[in-house]
Specification:
Blueprint lengths: L1 H31 L4 H4 L10 H8 L5 E5 L5 H14 L7 E5 L2 H15 L7 E4 H12 L10 E3 L1 H14 L9 H13 L11 H9 L5 H14 L2 E3 H14 L1 H10 L2 E4 L7 H10 L6 E5 L14 H9 L4 E5 L1 E2 L4 H11 L11 E2 L7 E6 L2 H18 L7 E5 L5 H10 L4 E3 L9 H14 L4 H7 L9 H14 L3 H6 L8 H20 L5 H11 L2 H7 L3 H21 L19 H9 L14 E5 L8 E6 L16 H15 L2 E10 L1 E4 L2 E4 L4 H5 L5 E4 L3 H5 L25 E2 L6 H5 L5 E4 L3 E12 L3 E8 L5 E3 L4 E3 L3
Parallel strand pairs: 1-7, 1-8, 2-3, 2-6, 4-5, 6-7, 9-10, 11-16, 11-19, 12-14, 12-15, 13-14, 15-16
Antiparallel strand pairs: 17-18, 20-25, 21-22, 21-25, 22-23, 23-24
Helix pairs in contact: 3-4, 4-5, 6-11, 7-8, 7-10, 11-12, 11-13, 15-27, 16-17, 18-19, 18-22, 23-25, 24-25
The protein binds a DNA duplex (15 and 10 nucleotides) through helix 6, helix 11 and helix 20.
DNA sequence: GTGGGATCGGTTTTT
DNA sequence: CCGATCCCAC
C-alpha cells in the first residue's frame, strides 16, 4: 500500500517536473524567437488572412461594414487594414481609429508598428473619449473653455448633481443623484443638450411619470455649473466635440479634410452621439470602416443601439458589407453552445458562426451550496486543470456579472497559492487619498474646478467648515462666479475674520503652486503639493495598515506622474493618441481621468484574471469560468423586466461563453450572502437554454431540477491544502454588539483597538439594556483613558 | 468646527 | 456588510 502511494507521489512529481519544463520551454520559445511579422507571414503581410478577411482588409475605398463574429480574427483584419492603408502612402496622422479601450489601441499600434515601422505612432488611435479629449484640448478655447479643462468622473458629476438637488430644495429621495445623472447622460448621448431637453416631450413626460418634473432644470443648472468650473464630464467630451464641429466651421473643415480614413472598432457599442461625430468627420472622404457584431452589443444601458448599424446602412447606401463567420478561437462545443444561446434572441441579424476546430470537452456546470464553496470549487478546478491540461495561470479567467462577486474567488485562490489579478472594482484613481492629491493638482491647473475645491478646501482640516462653505456657495451662485473667484476676492464679501483668514491662506497656498506650474518639474511640483498641504504628513502619522497603504498609494501616484513626464521605455500613461508630446501636468490629469480598467493591466504576467463579463470583451482565454449563474444575478434582477433588457443579458452571456478557447465551466451557488444574511438562489435560466446533452453536471441534486427523487452526492475534489491560519482575533466587539459580546470581553483583558492599537480594557461600566456596554480602553504604555466606546478585537493568548 | 458613534439605506454593467 | 449621513459632546 505504502509502495503504491509512493509511486503515485513519484508520478505526480514527474508530472510536475514535466509540466514545469514544458511551460518554461514554451515561455522560452515565445520570448526569444524574434517575431518579425512580415517575414513570418510570408512575402506580404496580407498573405496571412483568409479569403473574407483579406477582402475586408483591402477594400479601403468608400464606406465599409465588417460584421465579425467572436473569434473571427477581427483585430487582425483591422490591424492589417490600417497597415495596408499606410502602405498605399497615406500619412499616419490622416487616420483615425477608435477602439474600445486604450489598451486595445496600444496593442494594435504595436502590431502595426511591427509591420510598418515607427510612423504608426502618430496615428490618431484610442478610445472615443481620449481621442476627442485630445482634440478638445487644442480647440476648447473656440467654445469658451480653457485647454486646461478638468474632466469630471462619474463621482464628481453625481456629487455636483446632488448638491444642485439640495440647493434647489428638492427631495433627494425622489431626486436621486444617480438616476438624475443617468437621465442627463442618456440625453447627452442622444445629442440632446440642456436647451433642447425641455422641448423633448417624451423625455419630459417620462420624468413627470416618475414624479421628477424638475430634471430639465437640474440639467440646465448642471451644465451651467460644469461650464463655470471649466469642467467636462465624460459625456461632455463627446457632446462638446460635436458642438465644436457643428459651430466652428474651420475646425470641422480642418479635421474633415485631415482624416482620410476613419475606423471604428466595436461599432455595436457606440451610441448615437459618437456615431454622429464620426459621421461628420468622415463626410468629406467617406472612407469609413466600422467593425462590429450585433450579438455582442452589451452597452445599451449606455445608449448604444442596434439602430446605429441600421442608420449606417441608410446613411451610406453604397456600403460594402463583409461577414466574418468562421471562428478560430473556440471548440465546436463552445461555438454550438453560443449559437444555441443567442438563438433565443429575437432582435438580431441572421448569421451563423462556425468553426473547423476540434469538438473539445463538454461544458461543465457546477452547483455549489454557497458563494464561498463556489470560490473553493473554482480554485480547485483551476489547480487541477493547471496540472492535467498544462494550462498556465494566464490561461484562466473567472468572469462574473458584478464586481462585488470577486471576494470568494480571491480568498480561495489565495489559499491555494494561485496568483491572480482583479480588474475593475475600485480602481487606483478612485481611492480617497489619490483623489485628494489629484484634487489639489486639478485645482492648481484649473482653480475654478468646483468639485476639487470642495474636496480639499478643508482637507486636511483648516477651519473652513460647513457654515463658511454654505456662504461661499451662496455668494458664488448670486454672482455667477466660481467658488475660487469668491475666495480669491474674499474682501468683497462679508465673512467673519477667522473664515476670511483661513480662506486667504488656502488661496495663497494654491497660488504658490500655480506660480511653479511652468517652472517646476511636474513630479517635483506634485511632491511639493503633497508635502506642503499636509496630506503626506497626515497619512504618515496614521500607522494603521490602511494608513500605510494610503501612504504608498500617494507615492505610487507621484511615481506615475514622474513616468508620464519622463517617458521611459514602456509607459502605460503615455497618451496613446499623442503625436506631439504634451507632458504638462494638465495633460496628465486629463489622460488619467480616461484610463479604463483594462488599461491597468500589463497583461503579460502569469496570473489568473478576475473581471466582469463587460471587462472581458475582446479577450480570450483557454479556460473560462462563468460564475454566479443565478436568477437575479446573471441575468441581473434589474434587467428581466422587458424583452430588450433580457436579450442584452443574453448577449452578455454570449460574450462570456465565446471568450473560451478550450474549456468552459459554469457555476452557480444555491445560496449566497447578501447584506450579511443568507439568500437562496435559483439557477439561471441561461443554464436551461444551453444544449443539455453537451453539459456535464457536477454537484447536482437532480431532484431539485427535474422533480425526481434522484440524489447525486456531491464531493469536492480532494486536494490537500495547508491548514488555514488561525485568526488572531476570534471575536470582534463593537458598539452595538449582540448580548454575547460582553461575556467575551472582561476587565483586564488585552485587546487590540481598530485604530489605537494594543491596550487593555480597564472597565466595563453600565450595561444599558443588555445590548450595549461602555468599554473603557487604555492604550498600552499610556496612563490616560483613551475612550469609552471602542471597536475592539480580543487578543487570544 | 471637529470627531466619534449610531443609524439608515442600498445592490449592474463603463467612459 | 458597507458607506453616507445624522446627531451629539467637546
Amino acid at each position: 500500500m505504502a509502495c503504491v502511494l509512493a509511486h503515485c507521489v513519484q508520478d505526480l512529481t514527474m508530472i510536475k517536473i514535466l509540466s514545469f519544463f514544458l511551460t518554461n520551454l514554451c515561455a522560452f520559445l515565445m520570448g526569444y524567437i524574434p517575431f518579425p511579422i512580415p517575414y513570418f507571414y510570408g512575402m506580404s503581410f496580407l498573405d496571412a488572412l483568409n479569403e473574407p478577411q483579406l477582402k475586408a482588409a483591402t477594400s479601403i475605398q468608400g464606406p465599409v461594414m465588417i460584421i465579425a463574429g467572436p473569434g473571427s480574427g477581427k483585430t487582425r483584419v483591422l490591424t492589417f487594414r490600417i497597415a495596408h492603408i499606410l502602405s498605399q502612402g497615406v500619412d499616419p496622422f490622416e487616420i483615425m481609429a477608435l477602439t474600445f479601450t486604450n489598451k486595445a489601441a496600444r496593442e494594435m499600434k504595436n502590431r502595426i508598428e511591427a509591420i510598418q515601422g515607427t510612423g504608426a505612432r502618430s496615428l490618431w488611435m484610442g478610445t472615443f473619449h481620449s481621442v476627442f479629449a485630445r482634440m478638445l484640448r487644442s480647440e476648447a478655447t473656440k467654445i469658451g473653455y480653457t485647454s486646461n479643462f478638468t474632466i469630471y468622473d462619474s463621482d464628481d458629476s453625481k456629487n455636483l448633481i446632488k448638491n444642485i438637488i439640495r440647493e434647489m430644495g428638492l427631495n433627494d429621495k425622489t431626486y436621486k443623484a444617480s438616476s438624475v445623472h443617468y437621465r442627463i447622460s442618456l440625453a447627452k448621448n442622444n445629442l440632446i443638450n440642456h436647451q433642447e431637453y425641455p422641448l423633448q416631450t417624451e423625455l419630459v413626460q417620462e420624468d413627470e411619470a416618475y414624479g421628477r418634473p424638475k430634471v430639465a432644470d437640474i440639467y440646465k443648472e448642471y451644465a451651467k455649473r460644469c461650464f463655470r468650473a471649466g469642467a467636462m464630464d465624460f459625456d461632455d467630451l463627446l457632446l462638446k466635440t460635436h458642438e465644436l464641429l457643428e459651430s466652428v466651421p474651420e475646425v470641422l473643415y480642418k479635421y474633415q479634410h485631415r482624416f482620410k480614413h476613419v475606423l471604428i472598432d466595436e461599432f455595436q457599442d457606440t451610441n448615437f452621439l459618437q456615431y454622429s461625430i464620426v459621421k461628420k468627420l468622415a463626410d468629406v472622404h467617406q472612407n469609413i470602416c466600422v467593425v462590429g457584431d450585433d450579438a455582442q452589443s452589451i452597452y445599451a444601458f449606455r445608449g448604444a443601439s442596434i439602430l446605429n448599424i441600421l442608420n449606417y446602412e441608410r446613411d451610406f447606401p453604397d456600403v460594402q458589407t463583409f461577414r466574418l463567420e468562421q471562428n478560430y478561437r473556440s471548440t465546436k462545443t463552445i461555438v454550438a453552445a453560443a449559437n444555441t444561446i443567442i438563438a433565443n434572441n429575437k432582435q438580431q441579424l441572421a448569421k451563423k458562426i462556425w468553426t473547423d476546430n476540434a469538438d473539445g470537452d463538454r461544458i461543465k456546470v457546477i452547483r455549489s451550496m454557497s458563494d464561498n464553496e463556489e470560490g473553493r470549487l473554482v480554485a480547485d478546478a483551476i489547480f487541477e486543470q493547471r496540472m492535467r491540461d498544462h494550462i498556465s495561470n494566464s490561461g484562466f479567467a473567472i468572469l462574473y456579472r458584478t464586481n462585488a462577486q470577486s471576494r470568494s474567488f480571491e480568498e480561495a485562490l489565495r489559499r491555494l497559492n494561485i496568483p491572480y489579478r482583479i480588474y475593475g472594482g475600485i480602481s487606483f484613481y478612485q481611492r480617497k487619498e489619490v483623489k485628494d492629491l489629484m484634487a489639489y493638482l486639478k485645482l492648481t491647473v484649473n482653480p475654478n474646478d468646483e468639485e476639487a475645491f470642495k474636496r480639499v478646501v478643508n482637507y486636511p482640516a483648516r477651519g473652513i467648515g460647513k457654515t463658511t462653505m454654505e456662504k461661499l456657495i451662496v455668494f458664488a451662485a448670486d454672482n455667477d462666479r466660481s467658488l475660487w473667484d469668491i475666495a480669491d476676492n474674499i474682501a468683497l464679501f462679508p465673512f467673519p475674520a477667522a473664515a476670511r483668514k483661513n480662506l486667504t491662506e488656502f488661496v495663497t497656498m494654491i497660488k504658490s503652486f500655480q506660480a511653479q506650474l511652468g517652472k517646476m518639474h511636474a513630479y517635483d511640483l506634485a511632491a511639493q503639493v503633497a508635502k506642503s498641504t499636509g496630506i503626506l504628513k497626515e497619512l504618515y502619522n496614521d500607522q494603521s495598515v490602511e494608513g500605510l497603504s494610503r501612504y504608498e498609494n500617494i507615492q505610487e501616484l507621484l511615481n506615475s506622474i514622474r513616468e508620464f513626464v519622463d517617458p521611459g521605455e514602456y509607459n502605460q500613461l503615455v497618451p496613446v493618441d499623442a503625436t506631439e508630446a504634451d507632458r504638462s501636468l494638465a495633460a496628465y490629469l486629463q489622460q488619467v481621468s480616461l484610463l479604463t480598467d483594462a488599461d491597468q493591466q500589463d497583461g503579460t504576467d502569469d496570473t489568473v484574471k478576475l473581471m466582469t463579463v463587460h471587462a472581458a470583451k475582446g479577450l480570450e482565454f483557454e479556460s473560462v469560468f462563468i460564475v454566479g449563474l443565478e436568477e437575479n444575478l446573471f441575468p441581473s434582477g434589474l434587467s428581466v423586466n422587458s424583452r430588450e433588457e433580457l436579450e442584452e443579458e443574453r448577449r452578455l452571456f454570449y460574450v462570456a461563453i465565446t471568450r473560451a478557447e478550450k474549456k468552459l465551466t459554469l457555476t452557480h451557488a444555491a445560496s449566497r450572502y447578501k447584506f450579511g444574511s443568507l439568500d437562496y438562489c435559483e439557477p439561471s435560466r441561461f443554464i436551461d437554454e444551453l444544449p443539455q446533452d453537451q453539459l456535464e453536471m457536477v454537484g447536482y441534486n437532480k431532484a431539485a431540477r427535474s422533480g425526481r427523487e434522484e440524489y447525486v452526492t456531491y464531493q469536492a475534489p480532494k486536494i490537500t491544502r495547508p491548514a488555514p491560519a488561525q485568526p488572531a482575533f476570534t471575536h470582534q466587539a463593537s458598539a452595538g454588539f449582540s448580548p454575547a459580546a460582553p461575556n467575551e470581553l472582561q476587565e483586564g483583558m488585552d485587546v487590540e483597538h481598530q485604530k489605537f492599537g494594543f491596550g487593555k480594557i480597564v472597565g466595563m461600566e453600565g450595561n444599558n439594556d443588555g445590548k450595549m456596554a461602555t468599554i473603557q480602553f487604555q492604550k498600552a504604555g499610556q496612563k490616560k483613558l483613551l475612550l469609552k466606546f471602542a471597536k475592539l478585537s480580543i487578543v487570544r493568548n
